[in-house]
């Protein structure tokens, strides 16, 4: 299965449509997005592969999706921890934090130390609205994500990658040229940068209507049963 | 598995705690409640048993759970329709309606006619805050639910039943004495009236923390995998 991609600009317009025309609140959309991320984790990295999941959250909605996913993971029996160095200040993120604190999910202060004791990393740092350049502390985090042997699942896009143009150029100033997560979950629809992605690829967003899919010229993936995600195949070299 | 029940009064206090202490918004809780209802439908009445589901929604949050469930059911491939005679006016219910209208889910005006062309009924009329007496048009609807051969899945409680005291007395003025849905999903925890219930019984609410469960002396059911529901067995005579 190969799905059409949505540009960064259209993804922003679609999100706005979901709220203005679609009747969704950000609370609802983030709940559904985070739920699909948690299901992708369960599929890609079942509990038998290790329960410890370090969720790295950025300051915006991608980070919020990570917070929701972490809550569901805690209920599934994982042992999530959160690294959240630049915390979004809005009321929704504050509430998502409280939900995790009430589950005794730790917010850890040191990324390098946390990397030593996890089985999986969820990269919920930046999504479709990412704009260069990376600001501290994220360049250092991306460098560590490039180097670690621990599997990474990225939410919506590998953080540091340009949504349209893919990974930064090798040898340039920006880190991330060799960052290749083992798994990716595209929310709503793949972004153009998946062209450069090699690894397991999931799609979530089982709330799109046909009308919105048509407006943005997207495919509605064929979900199975009650799944909130669908695996759209391993992206590999020959598909580039 | 037998789970402790929560009184009507405690269920209201718990809901308030989830929002005041737990950090949840009503949007989030209703999304998760409706999602579990949709999963109970999928488990109790898979698509192969017939796709048509008539969701009967009451004016409050139980009806809202039904609206969310109907949206998920539409995405699973069911053909839901909604009977919603006393529509809650708050902004959340309005948005949930828009979400369904955008999926072309019909809102039907005539319950008796709708009953002739459905494979399953979801009773999302009244939940834990139900207080007698039933007001029109609900007595007539309950009488039809008592008589129909079409299976009914009730959300949180069989509508018309007293949450503490169970079904109305036979021969009394209130209908519902012989209403016995084939399936029931208790949200968060069973209500005391399950003592009188015979049929398949599911529980949803995979967001409770241990702290809240302890406060209200509840059991946390053992969910499996990524399920949002768990079946707690068929309630039968011998368990009364």
Automatic annotation (TrEMBL), chains A, B:
UniProt xrefs under InterPro entries: YjeF_N_dom, YjeF_N_dom_sf, YJEFN_prot_NAXE-like
Q: Where in the cell is it found?
A: Cytoplasm; Mitochondrion
Primary localization: cytoplasm
Co-factor: note = Binds 1 potassium ion per subunit.
Outline the extent of the YjeF N-terminal domain. Answer: 11-220
Its domain of life reads Eukaryota
- Cofactor(s) listed: K(+)
Q: Which GO terms describe its cellular component?
A: mitochondrion
Q: Where does (6S)-NADPHX bind?
A: 61-65, 127-133, 156
Recorded catalytic reaction(s): these are:
(6R)-NADHX = (6S)-NADHX; (6R)-NADPHX = (6S)-NADPHX
Enumerate the PROSITE patterns for this protein.
YJEF_N (PS51385)
- NCBIfam families given for it? yjeF_nterm (TIGR00197)
Q: What is this protein called?
A: NAD(P)H-hydrate epimerase
Originating organism: Talaromyces rugulosus (Penicillium rugulosum)
């Amino acid at each position: 299965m190969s799905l059409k991609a949505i540009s960064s600009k259209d993804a922003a317009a679609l999100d706005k449509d979901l709220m203005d025309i679609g009747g969704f609140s950000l609370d609802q959309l983030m709940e559904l997005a985070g739920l699909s991320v948690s299901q992708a984790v369960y599929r890609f990295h079942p509990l038998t592969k290790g329960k410890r999941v370090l969720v790295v959250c950025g300051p915006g909605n991608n980070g919020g999706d990570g917070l929701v996913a972490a809550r569901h993971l805690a209920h599934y029996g994982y042992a999530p921890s959160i690294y959240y160095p630049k915390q979004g200040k809005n009321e929704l993120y504050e509430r998502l934090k409280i939900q995790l604190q009430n589950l005794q999910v730790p917010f850890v202060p040191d990324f390098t130390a946390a990397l030593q004791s996890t089985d999986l990393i969820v990269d919920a740092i930046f999504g479709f609205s990412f704009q260069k350049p990376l600001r501290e502390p994220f360049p250092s985090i991306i460098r560590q994500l490039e180097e670690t042997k621990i599997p990474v699942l990225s939410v919506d896009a590998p953080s540091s990658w340009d949504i349209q143009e893919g990974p930064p150029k090798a040898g340039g100033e920006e880190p991330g040229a060799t960052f290749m997560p083992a798994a990716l979950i595209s929310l709503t629809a793949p972004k153009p940068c998946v062209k450069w992605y090699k690894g397991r690829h999931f799609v979530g967003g089982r709330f799109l209507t046909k009308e919105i899919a048509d407006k943005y010229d997207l495919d509605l993936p064929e979900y199975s049963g009650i799944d909130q995600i669908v695996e759209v195949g391993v992206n590999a070299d020959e598909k580039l």
